[in-house]
């Protein structure tokens, strides 16, 4: 479904670009768009976009604060702070005078407002088929910034990592993906924001049919015990956003969890949460998560 921001965004793009500018056609979250090629001053309000642009070596002039991801510290250090992921600082943006603003995800509700200031594209990565969306974004950025060879190399590397992870998990049982938020627990199925781990890796769900809620399906320790997964894959929201909340290890330190097959076999995998939760769909984020899963599952090779 096309965003309600698509029409004003398209108009803003047409008015903002000079008629003589070289233009390229790329896919965005709101459909194909013609964009002035090789923008020089770029502000980014989406961490998956910032992750992938950094991997492509694209300079970024404006970033949100905080950005949550230490592996992007070097990129952020040389950029102006232009607000948060949810609230742009329009004065800072006006001072920066960007050629292009890249929004998406948490910042997507601000696309229309941002487009009044500068050409803006919504590069939200949909949760249903995150891998395909991530690959499409790599290709789009490669075209837009004249880095098609680098984009092809990144896509090949991601495909290779997916294949390695698929082989690592094959035949080793099912998994339940949970997110802890202080003392609360949610579960995520194949159609959720973390569901690409099931879909792309052919990793069986321990409990098929979980609702595809953005914030997961609220569950209890009893639910985990009843599902009794072979693997428990854990994302800690508090750790991802730097919150002073109960850590996932403490939350899951429970007799019901301890009795599961996953716990008994030492198959509880605590993923690095910030890349997966904050920059889901960024190429560096995805490859980091895949590396962690490959290592965890390979440790249980028979």
From TrEMBL:
Pfam families: Peripla_BP_2. Its main location: other. It is found in: Cell envelope. PROSITE patterns: FE_B12_PBP. CDD domains: FatB. Residues 41-301 form the Fe/B12 periplasmic-binding domain. Residues 1-21 form the signal peptide. This is Iron complex transport system substrate-binding protein. InterPro entries: ABC_transptr_periplasmic_BD, Bact_iron-sidero_bind, FatB. Keywords: Ion transport, Iron, Iron transport, Signal, Transport. PANTHER family: IRON III DICITRATE-BINDING PERIPLASMIC PROTEIN, PETROBACTIN-BINDING PROTEIN YCLQ. GO terms for cellular component: outer membrane-bounded periplasmic space. Belongs to the bacterial solute-binding protein 8 family. GO terms for biological process: iron coordination entity transport. The lineage of its organism: Bacteria, Pseudomonadati, Pseudomonadota, Alphaproteobacteria, Rhodobacterales. It comes from Rhodovulum steppense.
